[in-house]
Amino acid sequence: MTWKEEMIDGSVSSQLRVVRHILKAGSGFSSHRHEFAEVFWCETGTGMHVVNGQQFPIEAGDVIFVRPTDVHSGYSTSRTGLTFVNVSFPLEPMLALSKRYDPTQWPWHDGPVPLQVRLSPRRMERLHAWAGDLSAPNQRRLDLECFLLDIARLVTQPPENDVCSGLPVWLREAVEVYADPRNLAGGTARLSHLAGRSQAHLNRLVRAAQGRTATDLVNAVRMRWASTALRMSDRSIADIASVCGLTHLGHFYAIFKQHFRITPRRYRLDAWQATGHRD
Fold this sequence. Notes:
Oligomer: single chain
Shape: globular
CATH topology of the largest domain: Jelly Rolls
Distance between the termini: 62 Å
C-alpha cells in the first residue's frame, strides 16, 4: 500500500513521520531513496551528507530539503556524534502547495541536489517547536500544510530584509538575534558581543559593506521594532523609545523621522486611522 492510499478523512497522522536521530561518532545511515518527501535539520554535531553522488558537510543549523528523486546517505564526522530531526510526509499535499508559489520560493524545487540552508539559532527555535508539535498524534493535513508553509518562509525570507544587505552570514545572524527587543538597548556594544567581534571591526565591516556606521545599522534595527510596536501595541512612545535604548525622547523622534519622514505619533495615528480607528 502506498502512502497516498493510506489517506483517510484528511488525516495524515499515519503518513507524517517525525523522528530525532542520534548518530554516534563514525556512524550513519545507508544510501536510499523513497516515494515521499522529507526535510531534516541538524541540531548538534557535524556530519557529511552524500546525495546524488556529491558530498556536503552539515552542522548545527543546516536544513536540507530532500525530494523523492534524491538518493542519499550520511554519517557523523564529530567525536560527539550528530543529532538531527527528520520530518517525512506524503507528496500530494506538498505538490499541491508548490503549484501556488514561484519555484524560487519553494525549497523542494528542481535541481541536481537538494537545497541546503543555514538558519540562525533564533530561527532554529521555530523548528524545535515544530518538531514537538508534529510528533503529537492525530496530525491533520492542515497541520502539515502550516508546517510546510512556515519552513518555506523561514528559509527564503532574508533576515531583517534590506537591513542586512551585503553583510556576511555571521553578522546577519547576529543582527537577527539583536532584533529581539531585549537586546535593543545594548546598542553597538551588544551587537558586537553577539557577533563575537570588536566594535571597531564591526564598524569597519558595516561601513565597507553598506556605506554607513554600525550605529546606523543598530538604529535601523531599532526603528523597525519601534514601527511595529507603534502599530501593534498601545505602549507609550516614551516606553518604546526606552526599549530601543534611546531614553532622550527628542533623539528618538529625530532618528524615527530620519527613517520614516514623519513623527512616531503621526505614524501611529496614520496606521490606526487606515483601519477605521479614531484617536
